[in-house]
């Protein structure tokens, strides 16, 4: 191989490493607060949004690296499409299992637009649910079954017994 070709290949390889390293680097501390939640640093650790008091004494947001490692998604920032499809908000402080109590939230999370297309958010809530002893797939199946039951109930063309009817109010007695 000619020396100039070797030099060209070495330069190409070195430049490609440099460009790849600078473009793909995600550091939680460098992310703005509106991209922090649902981001994963290049180290593989989840980014979390925290509050702090700034110099003026006002509460502000800061993005930090957590101790939680995500195996497969290092250097990932969640898309707006997934945030919207899954019904989550980027500027929430902390994530709680209380969100599972909302049928509106589970409807979004279990929708195919979220569950099939947003592995980062699903991984996060899968682990959150598992920590509470709940299976996210089972929760989603239950949510789908409840939705099917409601659709069946609504489409049953009058086969439902009418609800109770209130007795007419008696006329007030005047003294």
TrEMBL record:
Keyword Signal: yes
Keywords tagged on the record: Signal
Keyword DNA repair: no
Leader sequence residues: 1-24
Protein name: PAR1 protein
Source organism per UniProt: Sesamum alatum
